[in-house]
Write a structure and sequence with these properties.
Elements lengths: L1 H10 L8 H13 L4 E3 L13 H9 L13 E3 L4 H13 L5 E4 L16 E4 L7 E3 L5 E4 L5 H8 L4 E3 L6 E7 L5 E5 L4 H7 L8 E11 L6 E7 L5 H14 L5 E10 L5 E10 L19 E2 L2 E3 L1 H10 L6 E10 L3 H18 L11 E10 L1 H9 L14 E10 L8 H19 L13 H4 L21 H14 L14
Parallel strand pairs: 2-4, 3-4
Antiparallel strand pairs: 1-2, 5-6, 6-10, 7-10, 8-9, 8-10, 11-13, 11-14, 11-15, 12-13, 12-17, 16-18, 17-18
Helix pairs in contact: 2-4, 5-8, 7-9, 9-11
Bound molecules: flavin-adenine dinucleotide (FAD).
The site of flavin-adenine dinucleotide has 19 residues, from β3 and β10.
Pfam family, one: FAD_binding_4
Family: Belongs to the oxygen-dependent FAD-linked oxidoreductase family.
InterPro entries: FAD-bd_PCMH, FAD-bd_PCMH-like_sf, FAD-bd_PCMH_sub2, FAD-linked_Oxidoreductase, Oxid_FAD_bind_N
Length: 499
Amino acid sequence: MIAAALLLAAVAPVLAASNTDAVSVCQHLHTAYPQYTVWDPTGTYGLETFWNQSYYSNAVKEYWNGVNADNRPACAFFPATAQQVSVAVQQLNKYPTAPFALKGGGHNFNVGFSSTNGGVLISFNENMSSTTRNSDGQSFDIGPGARWGDVYAVTQKTNQVVGLACDNVVNFEVVLGNGTIINANSDSNPDLWWALRGGGNRFGIVTKFTLKAHPLGDNGQVWGGIRSYSADKREQIFEALSKFTSEYPDAKAAIIPTFEIGLPGALISNPAIFFFYDGAKPSANAFAGLEDIEPFTDSTNTTSYTNITNAAGGAKIYGINAAIHVNTFPNMPSQQMTQLLETHWTTYQSMIKNDSSRNLDLQLGTFTPQPLSVRIARASQNAGGNALGLDPANGDRIWVENDLIWLNPACNDACPGYLHEVGDTVKEAFNNTLLGTKPTNYQSGDVDWISSNPLFMNDAANYQDVYGSYGPTNKARLASIAKAYDPTGFMFRQGGWSF
Ligand SMILES: Cc1cc2nc3c(=O)[nH]c(=O)nc-3n(C[C@H](O)[C@H](O)[C@H](O)COP(=O)(O)OP(=O)(O)OC[C@H]3O[C@@H](n4cnc5c(N)ncnc54)[C@H](O)[C@@H]3O)c2cc1C
């Protein structure tokens, strides 16, 4: 046994420097919940939970951004109930220097947001990931560790689906920074309910989401899949994207366009569009002409929702080295939109390349323009609004997600900065040539401000000012709600953005 532990210690990628307060918290959790707490197998107490060390190893390894896996918590705790989370919070309060991290699916791009080196990892996927239909049939209770594929497998049994966006959360069950368990909804703690919809991890630990149910497709049948295109089709796609975002002909239609530029010399440069229609067959012109552009591969068909989400990347992929950066732009008429997106294309072509000085070897850069139409802002307002403060009068915008993935871990430090340069280069080009162009469907608002804000938290890098992008009023409101519900700043002991 001891020899095995020594061997493990020898091959561990990073020896965790466990925080002594974190060790004290782990000791308590291990005593109270021995079946739900696993020590770092390479640490001092590793032998105590040697028999179930695979739970620890998997929790530490299963991050989409593999750079997180270098972080080794002192122990991993896999709670099964809100009460157990509350006990962990109370213990963490007794040991104020113990860092901690909350892990749902481990899909956030930013290193250290859902991982911790030497702290306490509270991981929800293992024991708090169930999906249950409520008796009224109008909503589902979902655990904080659930993955969408598992959620849809349940909801599609009754030809239902739950809204993806924060606007569809009817109730959050939350463990506050002092261990109290409360609910946040439109009647109880409505300010916390508002803050949790778009405000991130600074308010409390969510132990259950109740999400509104919607009917799904035609008796559960939906249409969609991925089409990829030769590079010369990009201009047609840019133009149609502008039209799709401004006209949004059919609320049942959705797209995720991705432009990939990769390998030395940008040899692979292809647009691809993920199409989705919430019905067995799209209505005429549902995609504003995007559907008429000739692809060279096409997997669109009529199928089930889980098949579609799997096609969009539902598979569990771990260990990619990755960085992200998001920019907000106005959606503009076709000509200006083409200019902006062509600037992205050429910037990626010139900047995503072999560069030995940056330790870039095999790399893939992608940019993904995501329509933020006034339709979405209207739906958000109708559902009570959220922390992003979307106003339909501001017109249509797009979020452009920029990603870089690479193989060589020697680039783990420099590569995120490299993508940052790419994101800033396109933003600067926009500011120099197109700033002041009114968004389509614009009615009112400061054009310069709405042309760069808000940023989409799920696509934002750790150095981006997400809360500032919600505007000074919303940022101040978020800060005061955090102070009211978490006066000691407990939630700030983990990674995340600051006010
Ligand atoms: C390939 C890929 C595609 C993506 N596509 C999309 C997309 O189409 N749309 C989209 O919106 N996003 C997308 N994202 C972004 C992703 O949805 C977000 O990063 C999201 O945070 C991931 O959720 P998670 O549970 O896996 O997060 P984790 O990495 O586990 O955690 C993320 C954050 O949530 C906090 N957190 C975790 N659990 C709790 C809890 N119980 N209570 C309070 N805070 C908690 C953590 O502190 C952390 O800051 C994509 C990401 C990847 C890698």
